[in-house]
Design goal:
By secondary structure, this protein is an alpha/beta fold. The chain contains nine helices and seven strands; from the N terminus they run ααββαββαβαααβαβα.
Length: about 260
């Protein structure tokens, strides 16, 4: 029975991926935008500055963009010691709860980056406040996160984490250990998050929204088609509040920077 279910899921996934490219909204690559901005910030970095990869537990994909010549130090920050122990991308690791504080000095970080972390934080306001505190005057914050108002996000909030993990293991075994963690989606909408940045003295410099949330339905082809059509409509209408994923690049507000440098 399990093998038949696996074959059925694999067939549906193959069909879903085959038609996916026909939908324009699926071509928005926020990961590429994130990594492109990260690489530019690295090029502009100064010696001995640190980069915080918050939520960089078992891996830091951005490590490949660094070299010894840059003089920058990549620090993986995560709540789980077990996940950090599996991280071979950097030797610098700090176990900390990003919602409660980042154990770094004021202005210590050239880059504060996170990928699909914010939706898991119970207090995003506190995290953004800490980001603003540890960010250098010329620093940059890069955040890529899942949007709150999608069917997938709603399901994630309703289902207990244990149920989600079992479902993922059955349908998407390649995502075990990646998906299925507890989610909160605190301030995880376009307007709410940009409001938090401004509240704490950070200025949004660039942002983008992806409306492609139908990958969760790969394993059920008819559901994928319905979901992809829904995504296409909200993409055409550019309803940011319903975005599946959001990317924001932010820097210190000019007034904050001037004030900080005068002290």
């Amino acid at each position: 029975m399990a093998s038949l279910l696996r074959k059925w899921c694999d067939l549906n996934v193959a069909l879903s991926k085959r038609v996916e490219s026909f939908f324009p909204h699926t071509r928005i690559a926020l990961h590429e935008r994130f990594h492109g901005d990260f690489a530019r910030c690295v090029d502009e970095g100064r010696d001995n500055a640190i980069i915080l990869d918050v939520g960089g537990g078992r891996s830091c994909p951005t490590a490949s963009l660094l070299s010894e010549e840059t003089g920058l130090r990549l620090v993986a920050v995560d709540l789980s010691r077990a996940e950090l122990a599996r991280n071979s991308d950097t030797r610098l690791k700090v176990c900390a709860d990003a919602s409660k504080g980042l154990p770094f000095a004021d202005g210590a970080a050239r880059i504060v980056a996170s990928r699909f972390l914010l939706e898991h934080l119970p207090d995003t306001d506190a995290f953004v406040a800490e980001t603003a505190r540890v960010l250098a005057a010329d620093g940059t914050a890069l955040h890529l996160f899942a949007g709150k108002h999608t069917p997938f996000a709603t399901l994630g909030r309703v289902l207990p984490a244990a149920w989600s993990r079992r479902l993922i293991a059955r349908i998407y075994p390649d995502q075990v250990g990646i998906l299925g963690y507890t989610v909160h989606y605190d301030h995880c909408t376009y307007r709410q998050f940009l409001g938090l940045l401004r509240k704490h003295g950070l200025t949004p410099e660039d942002s983008a929204v992806s409306y492609h949330q139908s990958a969760f339905a790969y394993a059920v082809f008819p559901l994928f088609v319905v979901s992809a059509c829904y995504d296409a409509v909200i993409h055409a209408l550019n309803i940011k509040a319903l975005g599946a994923a959001l990317y924001v690049r932010a820097g210190r507000t000019a007034a904050e920077t001037t004030h900080g440098s005068s002290e």
